[in-house]
Amino acid sequence: MARLIFLFLVFLVLIANVTTISICNGYSVHAVCIKSEKEALLKFKQCIVDRTNRLASWHSDGDCCKWTGIVCDNVTGHVIELNLRVPTLDDYYDYEAYERSWMGGKISPSLLHLKHLSYLDLSNNDFRGIHIPKFFGSLGSLRYLNLSLSNFGGKIPHHLGNLSNLKYLDLGNNYYTMHVETLHWLSSFHSLEYLDLSYVNLSQASNWFHALNTLPSLVGLHLSR
Ligand SMILES: *[C@@H]1O[C@H](CO)[C@@H](O)[C@H](O)[C@H]1NC(C)=O
Ligand SMILES: *[C@@H]1O[C@H](CO)[C@@H](O)[C@H](O)[C@H]1NC(C)=O
Ligand SMILES: *[C@@H]1O[C@H](CO)[C@@H](O)[C@H](O)[C@H]1NC(C)=O
Ligand SMILES: *[C@@H]1O[C@H](CO)[C@@H](O)[C@H](O)[C@H]1NC(C)=O
């Protein structure tokens, strides 16, 4: 009898294990956000001017993988995407509401804690002429960077040339608020497929044709004015 009970218990343990395994492989698990990355995002939020409270879901007691504009890797939980693009005017009931939804302020270097960030889209906002931060050049996992229509100004930092994994770089449509002195830094973009520098003032960049000519993967280019 004792032996039977023992076998029964072994059976129960086995069942329990199988159930756990199936739960762990199924839909019920998802990676939750990593504490240091959440803190980095909260610091980033503190410096952003967000008049329509688009970042309302960004508060300290939630899972940052569920916040507006954030995508985490399903397995590791690292933040891989930060997308704060404002949709087009068609999605707003009037122009004023559209304009108010543009975010601005400063961009905190706390973003450097997002070591796996591969997609950053701050397009269609209004950063009122602040420079593109030099530290963007250290976001080494970036494959997609979109700062178009967001009113960045001044000289585009050559530090961006450090982003050798970039496939898409869109700095267009900032309507002559930005300029470059050289495009030499483009030469490290071996994977770059799409480049938009429309309305960037290239008049001081004498070597731009040569720099563009060295991009082996480029399939899309916009330099229009
Ligand atoms: C994460 O899981 C979702 C839903 O199961 C899936 O649609 C998505 O492609 C996955 N993303 C990654 C990066 O694996
Ligand atoms: C960048 O964002 C703008 C507007 O938000 C969009 O029109 C454009 O297609 C984006 N660029 C890329 C390369 O996806
Ligand atoms: C270039 O990238 C490396 C590694 O990601 C980093 O250590 C370095 O500070 C970056 N340099 C610039 C100028 O951003
Ligand atoms: C571009 O820059 C040059 C020299 O810095 C300046 O003279 C010119 O007015 C600028 N062009 C535009 C359209 O802003």
From TrEMBL:
Subcellular location: Membrane
Record-linked InterPro entries: Leu-rich_rpt, LRR_dom_sf, LRR_N_plant-typ, RLP23-like
Protein name listed in UniProt: Leucine-rich repeat-containing N-terminal plant-type domain-containing protein
GO CC terms, sorted: membrane
Primary location recorded for the protein, binned into one broad class: membrane
Key words, A-Z: Glycoprotein, Leucine-rich repeat, Membrane, Receptor, Repeat, Signal, Transmembrane, Transmembrane helix
Domain Leucine-rich repeat-containing N-terminal plant-type span(s) in chain numbering: 35-73
Family: Belongs to the RLP family.
